[in-house]
Structure formats: C-alpha cells, structure tokens
Write the structure tokens for this entry.
Amino acid sequence: MLRDVVGTANVMTDPEVTAAYARDWTGRFRGATSAVVRPGSVEEVAGVLAACDDAGVAVVPQGGNTGLVGGSVPLHHEIVVSLLRLRELSPVDARSGQVTAQAGVTIGALQTHARASGWDYAVDLGARDSATVGGTIATNAGGVHVIRHGSTRRQLLGYEAVLADGRVLRHLDGLEKDNTGYDLASLICGSEGTLAVVTAARLRLVAHPEHVVVALLAFDAVEDALDAVGALRRSVDVLDAVELFFAPGLRLVCSTFSLREPFPEPHAAFVLVEAAGSTDPTETLAAGVQALARVADVAVAAEPERRAELWRYREAHTEAINTLGAPLKLDVTLPPDELAPFVERVGATVTAVAPGAHVWLFGHAGDGNVHVNVTGVDANDDRVTDVVLRLVAQLRGSISAEHGIGTAKRAWVHLNRSPEEISTFRAIKQALDPRGILNPNVLLPLRSEARA
Ligand code: FAD
Ligand code: 2HG
Ligand code: ZN
C-alpha cells in the first residue's frame, strides 16, 4: 500500500486536489489520475516505485509541472509521483564550486542559495520559480545561458536516482574527472522520467558575475537581426545570452501586460544581448554593437531593475501567448545558416495547412533555438506539427531543442533518429524498466507511430 510508504496525508485521491497535477502549464494537456503520491525521502521514492512495479502500475514523475511537451501529466491514468517534498540543499562547497540539491528544489531557490556564497547556477529560465532540479535534469533544460555555460547536462557532476524496481543508484562525489564506466548521469539527464526517478544531483556552480549589462537591439529587417546574432558571438567574448523576438510578439507582450514599447518607432525584429563578467563589459558590448551594419535603435541597461524590464519583453512571451488559449508549441534548433530560411518559411508552411493560424516566433538565437508557437488552431492539430517538424528536418535541425519529446512529439522522433538509434533507446528502456512503468507514454514512439 502506498499509504504505508508515504503516510496517508501524502497520497491524494480527491479529484479536486489531483486535478492540478493532471493538467499541464499551458492547459493543452489534460489527464486524470487515481492518486498523487508525495514521497519525502529517497527511501520513500524507492518504496513507492517498488510497490508500483510489483503491481504493474504506471507512474509519471512530476516536479514543477512546467514542462511544455505533455510529459509531466497523467494522460493515460498513470499515478503521479510528485518530487516536490525533496527540498534539501547542501552548503555550497567553496573549493569545488559545487552543491548537492534534492530533486524538488526549484531553480530559483538553487540560484538564491548559490548567490549567497558568491556563486550562481548557470541554467536559467522563465519558469525558474516553479521548475525543479529533477525536472530540469529529466528534460536536460536549456534556457538563456546555454551559449556560455551549456544545458543542464553540462552542470551535472553526480546524481542519485531510483530505478523502476526501487533500487537506488547514487554517485554524488562530484569529481571533475571520473572515467569509471558508463556515464549514467548523462544518460538519465534528458530521459524525461522514462529510465529512473531523479532524487538528487551534484551540480556545478559558476562564478556570480559582478558586472552585467543588457542591450536590446532593434532591426528593421529580420535578416539584419539574424546576421547580428553571429556577428555579436564573434566579437563579444563575454556574452551570456543572445535572444530573439519579433514585432508581433513584442506588441502582444506590451498589450497583455500594459508595458510601454521599448522604442519610439516600430521595428521588425529584436535581439536581446546580455554580457557579464568580473569587469564591466559595457565597452566590449558597445564596440560589438557599433560594428553591426544596420541596427535601427538600441536600449542599454546596467541597473538590475532596468535589466529586468528589458528581459521582460522577451521572457513574457510564453505567458502572453497563453492568454490567447492553449497554443501548439514547437521548440526546434536550426544550424546557423538555416536560421534565416526557417524563420522566413515557417509562417507560410503553417498557414498552408491551417489558414487561420497565427505563428509566433521567439527564442534563444545564440544557439539556433527557435520557439514556434501557433495559435488560432486546435493545439492538437498534428498537420501543423508535421509540416513544421519536417521543414526543420529538411534544414538539418533538431525537432526538440530543450523541451524534450514528451507525448507531443513522440511520433516524429524518427525525423532525427535512425531506426538503429530508436531500437537502442528501446533496449536501454527495457534493461532499466523491464515492466515499463516509468512514464511509458513519452519519448519513445509507439511502434505504429513511426512515419515515413
Ligand atoms: P515537470 O514539468 O514536472 O516534468 C518535466 C518532465 O520531467 C516530465 O517528463 C516528468 O515526468 C519528468 N520529471 C520531472 N521530475 C522528475 C524527476 N525528479 N525524475 C525523473 N523525471 C522527472 N525549458 C527550457 O529548457 N528552457 C527555457 O527557457 C524554458 N522556459 C520556460 C518558461 C516558461 C514560462 C515555462 C512554463 C516553461 C519553460 N520551460 C523551459 C519548460 C520547463 O520549465 C522545463 O522543461 C523544465 O525543465 C521542467 O521542470 P519541472 O520541474 O517543471 O518538470
Ligand atoms: C522560453 O524560452 C521557453 O521562453 C518557453 O523555452 C518557450 O513558450 C515557449 O514556447
Ligand atoms: Zn526556451
């Protein structure tokens, strides 16, 4: 009995309570569950999984439930295992610049903890106050600092996780060099809860930058903005974010949140650049911006509050778009040379199959990552997903940059992964979770779903 493992108060069955765990952040993915279980220790996670494995009951691990691909909610009546009670953080190790965090710690809490010791956690994202260490590891979350520090996998120096049958794997020493066999932390990172439940991690911290400056650049031609991305990456060596958005998204953000537009004149495209370092990067950034060919206007901010105002124009896109109804979200990476052709073609590609659609584009341009949000269509319209992901594959891009596959994209994994790779994925899943109880409805395509 799960109640014997976690206590009666931590098995919730009232549909009014469990509903919040069964619906995703966007409102697109809605399921139902007979129970939400909230273990409070690694031993309790092990007990819950062993019991479910014995009974052949499928589970969905859940952290902050901010995932955007329908992977964190029980769409097939799975039991939800919420990790939010695992909230311990070790002191920051000043010599190694490392910390051990339990799965339910939010990214915001981890950053605050690290900053109190002069360090920082490099993965940063708009969902920081809800997204958890466990969830970001499970999705290998990216965020705004990938161009400088890499995605979550690069921060991961050790892990603790529970296998489907309740066995606990633990390797938390955090040695920078450690070639003792298979890198299980890297394997579990990005596995979206299909191989093990992450309970804790040893994480790399980075120096908290003393000086940060943000510039919002306006362009009258989309092509000029995309050219600027590569030029800035070459000329400014202290860049830690290069973000992109366009006039319709900016207008929507400003009208939704009653914000003043950042520039007196309208412009077509915007690049938000952040530079950071132990010395003031303003001059380096200004020189990089001056060298750009066709910048129409610039706003610069060094003070934290003004920096946050400029960031809001970019970060508030997700929330603003959601006010229009649950969108269809795609998250793709293009090779640098294909970013401009993709941005140019994707709108017409979508409206060819869904004439009433509105396509919103924004993203982390520094690493080629574009978020394609489509409103004005049924969010489950597979035709839209199909044409966009095929365009991405044709341009040699990835159909999932940072959000994962979840349930939303499992039918298109074959566009990026060969049959040999997919059968190796299946073999790994079978070895670690032979009864298939861990998030069985995400990531791996159904055999009947493999499309030509
Ligand atoms: P959940 O949503 O709860 O779960 C996500 C997946 O991980 C599910 O498959 C779940 O089963 C699995 N999982 C959760 N916890 C565990 C665990 N302990 N062990 C094993 N599996 C687990 N993502 C980015 O990459 N970059 C961004 O910039 C970004 N910005 C966002 C902004 C907003 C406003 C929102 C709403 C989302 C954003 N996301 C972004 C998506 C989301 O925040 C990330 O995918 C994040 O990693 C999810 O963390 P979570 O704790 O909410 O996980
Ligand atoms: C972002 O970069 C997030 O803002 C969310 O990854 C993207 O809403 C989206 O599609
Ligand atoms: Zn993103």
In short: Residues 2-82 form a domain with the Uridine Diphospho-n-acetylenolpyruvylglucosamine Reductase; domain 2 fold (CATH 3.30.43.10). The longest strand covers residues 211-219. The mean pLDDT is 97.
